[in-house]
TrEMBL record:
This is HTH cro/C1-type domain-containing protein. Signal peptide: none annotated. One of its GO terms (molecular function) is DNA binding. Transmembrane segments: none annotated. Residues 12-48 form the HTH cro/C1-type domain. InterPro entries: Cro/C1-type_HTH (IPR001387), Lambda_DNA-bd_dom_sf (IPR010982). It holds the Pfam family HTH_3. The lineage of its organism: unclassified sequences, metagenomes, ecological metagenomes.
Length: 49
């Protein structure tokens, strides 16, 4: 995993938690599955830009 991908992974979880959101709440707002949010935060999935 590249540096930028690791940064996204860490930032997403940090920002989500600082906003007081659960993975489910963020997924509903972003219109993606909770599993996608979880996979991004755990470095399993890297979304395309």
């Amino acid at each position: 995993m590249g540096k930028d991908h690791k940064k996204l992974q860490n930032n997403l979880e940090e920002l989500r938690k600082s906003a007081g959101l659960t993975q489910q709440e963020l997924s509903e707002s972003a219109e993606v599955s909770r599993k996608s949010i979880n996979a991004i935060e755990n470095g399993i999935y890297v979304p395309s830009t």
